Amino acid sequence: MKDKKRAMGRGLGAILSAESKATINSATDEGADKFVGNIVEVALEDIYPNPTQPRTYFDEKALNELAQSIKNLGVIQPITLRKDGERFEIISGERRYRATKIAGLTTIPAYIRLVNDQELLEMALVENIQREDLDAIEIALTYHRLLEEIGLTQENLSQRIGKDRSTITNSIRLLRLNPDIQNAIRSGEISAGHGRAIISLESEEDQQVLFDLIIKEKLNVRQAEQAAAALKNPKSPAAKKAKVELSNNYKKAQKTIADILDVKVEIKSSGNGKKGKIVLDFKNEEELEYILSHIK
Questions:
Q1: How many helices (H) and strands (E) does the chain have?
Q2: Rounded to two decimals, what is the model's pTM?
Q3: Which is the catalytic residue, given 30, 41, 86, 94?
């Protein structure tokens, strides 16, 4: 009774009756109009997560912070559920559902939808794509599932989510990277832009070389693209430019040596980060002697 008063006090509607939980399973069932499209309170014990939910990681600290907010203010944005017999499957809002349980509440405000399995998966996947805190690999996996499991074409998917086809294609290509590189993208060690530079290389060996170089030399995306060009064609103009475009570490070393010796210094990298050379400019023998005196 206490939970019902709390729900009604919020103006969110009554907790679902036992009858509605048991008998209303489609939009044509008697009484469906009482809760479909409206906000109602649903007991947490009657709710279960979607096993095909695209999102698999929930930050514990963020969940506890949300739980504290819910304790103070309640659930501000209702979750969305699918009616499944006497229980309810989460379409979107699993994070809010988990935090509400942590907060010690027994019910949560929700919108109820009557959808089939395919519609449920599509809604969960599309809702997932719109999130701002997903990593590039999660997004790519979601695109792939919409294409493979739902059967959408890239054109249809592009229209539904408002993304260019090229964006979808480039995203899915990241799934061809080896697991270590994908994990580096997921953890934020490298960006999706780095991943696209790596996947532009055909051989897995070259991809690994470039990945190792990006990590070791802390290359930005532009530098990674130039290094990829150098690996594809060492004699190309782009490769020569890649050698000129040094990593920040090399640039710092180049400046330090130049300041110490007071001469022009050029560090040339091989492009794979394993070797290189330092070129010192001198105008005459006197300047050479000056350099040697500082090296000794």
A1: 15, 7
A2: 0.49
A3: 94
